[in-house]
Amino acid sequence: PTVQQREDSDETKVPTVDPGRMKEIYTLRANDGIRNYIRATCCRPVYGEEVHGIINEQRQPVVHLTSCPKAIRLKATYGDDIVAVRWGPHIHSNFGITLEFTGNDSPTFLDDLIDIVREMHIPVIGIHVDSIHGSAIGSIHVRVRDRSERDEMMRRMQGVLGLLKIRQIFPEYSEQRRGIPIPNQKPFIPHK
Description:
This protein is α+β, with helices and mostly antiparallel strands. The chain has helices at residues 2-6, 69-77, 109-119, 147-158, 171-176, and strands at 26-31, 34-35, 38-39, 51-55, 61-65, 82-83, 85-91, 95-104, 124-132, 135-144, 163-169.
């Protein structure tokens, strides 16, 4: 939990949205990790993805992916608290994400994955790997600048010899629903 709180931003200074300005488009900005919005922990949106904002109890904008199951439920219940958002400048800011992978347990498999991250100069927050019945199963927590950097990293990882599967996962769902299929986890499909 402490890693998630510190990993990519300071959301303690998020301004409130004036109820009289709810019809205006809210521009999402960040500078040196200080954001004017809260990034939803359920779906962990990344700069460049399709998102919408939902105003929380403190009148602050919380940004969700448009496909987030939790946001869809909130929109149905709290429709008056929806705010249209668009991405604005993000200077020296990044987004913590978690990737889950499965591959053949070979001597170079993990080194090959890490080499891609290193070559792209992507900061690593943490990594966990287990070897089970000849397979390497694990997750890597990294900080990316935007959707295209994440997609490029995953595209390169798909070329690693022995990689069987890689996908972005969302820790809040994983912790709450351990052992049950998670609705918003999809195979990686790069944007065009």
